[in-house]
């Protein structure tokens, strides 16, 4: 079972993808975590990526895809995987398709949330200074000062201000829509209403998986 999660920032797809991976017993692959791992461990791919980043350049899709293929070949991916954070562009989707060859993505789960709701959610977002994990305010205790994951300091990023959030969404939206169209034409796309309560979104996702294959 090979799944990709799609959605704008703040749609809750990271959290949903992780929960679903535990339910299905498949690996959860966050492209952000994967990058941080390679950079922190100083792997060959990590060094390659860092070379581009140090020059202020985008890391080429080929490097990211090599990281994904390397990850997919690990034992915990035998039953499948859920990919979160990649692809973000149509070119990346096409490159991923070529790389996966005859074991392609089975389903793409698109968690749809409207702009107003996203701004409301993101403007209340708090991040960890150490590991970068973002948290919704309501996920944390009112007096939480430390990251539940690593103990790092929590803070509100400047780019989680409402107007900045709106501009970011306007840039992301055409890309997400392009990906939705691409996977829609392949009949792999399942749209989920992400504005409903978390438990209902989880149920919808499980139903969508049952329709796989
Ligand atoms: Zn942390």
Defining key terms:
globular; 3-stranded antiparallel β-sheet; 8 strands; 5-stranded parallel β-sheet; 213 residues; Rossmann fold; 8 helices; alpha/beta; binds zinc ion
The average pLDDT score comes to 91
Number of helices: 8
CATH C-level class is Alpha Beta
Broad structural category = alpha/beta
Shape: globular
User: Which percent band covers the strand fraction?
Assistant: 15-25%
| Number of E-state strands | 8
Order of strands side by side in the largest beta sheet? 2-3-1-4-8
Query: SSE order in H/E notation?
Result: EHEHHHEHEHEEEHEH
Range of helix content = 40-55%
Distance between the termini: 9 Å
User: What ions, cofactors and ligands are bound?
Assistant: zinc ion
Write out the CATH superfamily name.
P-loop containing nucleotide triphosphate hydrolases
Parts with pLDDT < 50 across at least 5 consecutive residues: none
State Rg. Answer: 17 Å
- Specify the CATH architecture: 3-Layer(aba) Sandwich
The CATH topology: Rossmann fold
Number of domains: 1
What does this structure look like?
It contains eight helices and eight strands. It is an alpha/beta fold. It has one domain (2-115, 173-210): P-loop containing nucleotide triphosphate hydrolases (Rossmann fold). The strands form two sheets. A five-stranded parallel β-sheet has the order 2-3-1-4-8, with helices on both faces. A three-stranded antiparallel β-sheet has the order 6-5-7, with no helix packed on it. It is globular, with a radius of gyration of 17 Å. The mean pLDDT is 91. The structure holds zinc ion (ZN).
């Amino acid at each position: 079972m090979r799944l990709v999660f799609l959605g704008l920032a703040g749609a809750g797809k990271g959290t949903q993808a992780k929960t679903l991976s535990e339910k299905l017993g498949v690996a959860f692959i966050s492209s952000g975590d994967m990058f941080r791992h390679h950079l922190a461990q100083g792997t060959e791919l990590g060094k390659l990526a860092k070379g581009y980043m140090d020059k202020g350049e985008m890391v080429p899709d080929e490097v990211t895809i090599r990281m994904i293929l390397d990850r997919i070949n690990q034992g915990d991916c035998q039953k499948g995987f859920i990919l979160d954070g990649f692809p973000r562009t149509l070119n990346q989707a096409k490159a991923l398709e070529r790389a996966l060859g005859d074991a392609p993505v089975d389903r793409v789960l698109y968690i749809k949330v409207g702009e107003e709701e996203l701004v409301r959610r993101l403007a209340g977002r708090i991040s960890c200074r150490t590991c970068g994990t973002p948290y919704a305010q309501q996920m944390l205790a009112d007096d939480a000062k430390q990251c539940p994951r690593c103990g790092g300091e929590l803070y509100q990023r400047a780019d989680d201000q409402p107007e900045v959030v709106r501009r970011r969404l306007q840039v992301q939206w055409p890309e997400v829509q392009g990906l939705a169209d691409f996977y829609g034409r392949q009949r792999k796309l399942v749209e989920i209403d992400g504005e409903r309560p978390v438990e209902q979104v989880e149920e919808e996702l499980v139903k969508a998986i049952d329709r796989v294959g």
